[in-house]
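PROTOCOL LOG
Step 1. Enter all chains and additional molecules of the complex.
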Amino acid sequence: MIKDQEFLEKKASYCLGLAKKLGATDSSVIVKNSISETVNFRNKKLDESNRSDDLGISITTYIGKKKSSISSSNLLKDNLNILIEKCIETTKNTPEDEFNSLPDRDLLAKDVKDLDLYDDSHIANDQKIDYLKKLEAAASSDKKIVNTESSFTENKSNFVLANSEGFCDGYKTSSFTASSVTVAKDEKSMERDYDYSSKCFLKDLDDAEELGNLAANQTIRKLSPKKIGSEKISIIFDKRIAKGVLSTFASAISSSAISRGTSFLKDKVNQKIFSDKINVFDKPDMLKGLGSRNFDSEGVKTDILKLVDQGILKHYLIDTYNGKKLNLKSNGRCGGTSNLYFENGNISFKDLLNSNSKSLYITETIGHGSNIVTGDYSVGATGFLIENGEFKYPINEITIAGNFKDMFQNITLANDLEFKYATNSPTMLIEGMVVAGK
Amino acid sequence: MVNFFKDTDLARSEADNIISDTLRNCDDGELYLENSKSESIVLDDNKIKDSSYNSDLGFGFRAISDEVVAYSHSNEISKNSLKQSSENLKSTLKSVKGTYNHEIPKSNKKYYDNINPIEQKSLNEKIKILNDVNDYLRSKGDKVKQVTANFLGEQKSVEIIRSGGETLSDVRPLVRFNVSVMVEKDGRKETGVYGVGGRQSYDTYLKDENWKSVCDEALRIASVNLESKPAPAGEMKVVLGPGWPAILIHEAVGHGLEGDFNRKKTSAFHNLMGQKVASEGVTIIDDGTIDNRRGSLTIDDEGTPTEKTVLIENGILKNFMQDRLNARLMKTRSTGSGRRENYRHIVLPRMRNTMMLSGKQTQEEMIKAVDKGIFAVSFGGGQVDITSGKFVFNCTEAYEIINGKIGSPIKGATLIGDGPSILKEVSMVGNDMMMDPGIGTCGKAGQGVPVGVAQPSILIDKMTVGGTKL
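Step 2. Run joint prediction.
Step 3. Record the structure below.
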């Protein structure tokens, strides 16, 4: 069983008390417990079971404008005493930083709502095995599939965040995740693809057979890929890749990148950075949302933000420290975005495929090719050639490149948004990118 | 040495009993205990941004029957907690009828000293160096707009208790010192990053103001990039410099030669053992035994002493990298490559220091042999799809080559290739093998482990460069 609120609060208040006694003028603490049980299958047989029980505490102490922090997985009193003493000692020896402080008291979250993030149901490993048997039977039904791996994870977490301003809150969350990875083979090639489903509530999880079939079909259609020539071409990002464009956008508007001057979106608030029709929301209070939260990792309340309105950047993602540096108030985004998404566009997926006589549909990218200082983008890619709205053949061993400043201005979105991840995008078309191939 | 049972209600003899009882009739397994202490001190934007310390303690209990692995980990070293883990393992492995393999090779060799690098240098000294780095770089002119520098230090103590009570232990120091600098000219911003590290004290790397050379290198890379023009797009010849560009070896062939992917036949290399996978003259080894290197280990995380494993010899595929599980199932022996990020994770076969050995040619000859291509000197990181064999890596410093001469610097671009065929495109191997500076971390299945790479300069006849200039 995961530790209850009372246990976590007790630990938190012990740490705050000791820090104060040892000379901290302010302090904050997070105590977490998370228990996961995973079962992995391979080729229709049990491959691995894994149970993890993780405890963790992290404490930040302030002496005036000096700050330091410690973290540990050992919550025994003797260990906490040693660590907090060490933390205070380090704080004393760390230079002052005028922007160090706890969040402003009036920004701390009050009246915390129940966002329906915890499902108490437990699925025993034997039931997980039943689910995976069905999944793998479906995934391996085509004889081109030569290897299947799948897993089912149940996770329950609880945490308490407390600070010396009197904030003390936390809540349980749960997640149930099933995934399917398949390898397909023909005379010429071997390819791998995957799909997964992750939900707060067990009953919302995708059907096992559906998930297995999806992964298998996505893999088989990649077989016998071709390499194409280098050219300027329109790119269509599958939803699972399109959300990455949004994640890069989020890193580029984080207040730390902005205050350090290391973002291509610095000083762009109230300027048009996307094409006209683009709206971006970050909505923390979605019921059962995979990114939902009542407050950020400093305890600051999190309102809905319309980050981009008709192509115009409206907000950065602001935490307390960088907010003070930029002379802006925290908007509760310490730790990043919550449920971040592009609002639907107004054309269908089919029309998007048809909007150019020739385009590339990208289903996977590899490499760490996003540079948020310059906006340059260059990654390896796998996908399909689209001609006149039809999937022609699979392609691989190509790269796609551009600069986000231009890419953002050339985005067209389909109307097929789903909330499958914490960050979500409809299928995305970007005109004028460069493909390097043969 | 850490006594993991001190201050717990669990006596060592009781632990031995639970372990032996749980692993009876299993093929393998162990209790892995770990205590790590780590620190991070960061200077950023003219200030000490972070001074933090982490102490992590926990165990991972593993039982293996045939192909099935049962694993359970917890932070609480106690009778209850170990018993609960034991129950979890038993419930997964309902009917086991194996024979526990007690055999584990021994060695007295050690590849680093038992030190705690965090305690060897005071906080004030570290802060002073970080401030000196900031002042030094910012004194280099107005174009320097941002400086980040940090110390990362760790001491990890591990103990492996096998069925029957056999105990293997290791204490591993690890440090890293990094500098990142952003420069700006005419509204254009570029970054340069450099770092040093390994399994020794900070001072080994920073003595005699050696930190200045780290700063100089970061600034040099950033300044070169300020002058860079768009990279070309398409297939061309590529000359790789020595040292860190060996990320290519790591991604293109290293991952594909890990035992698990080959046992499962999901690696593009699984049916190529004994065959020619690289040009003549190409020899690649994975070596855990180089003193004080970031990827070196005295014993791996299953207790097997590490070794120097020949992967490819003169172009022929010779060995995969193995942990105990995959070695047993493939009827071979562990190469001491069983590693895990920490006690939260299961063991996987992983790389240590992956190196291509020197040949006879010079870098000059390679450049001369290229009509149109690029010369890549420094890289960010890479990634591979081991099934299709396609891999990428990202240049952070590269130049065009025109008619046998090095030309202008080009913008960071991704290079993509095919693992099983790329080494056949190597037409020259340099005489200038160099180790990387000791900053690499390899990710696999969500686990990061410190690794090293090395190579001489090499000429690759055909690779796709992912620039924007057609």
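Step 4. Note key features.
DSSP finds nine helices and 18 strands in chain A.
Chain A has a mean pLDDT of 96.
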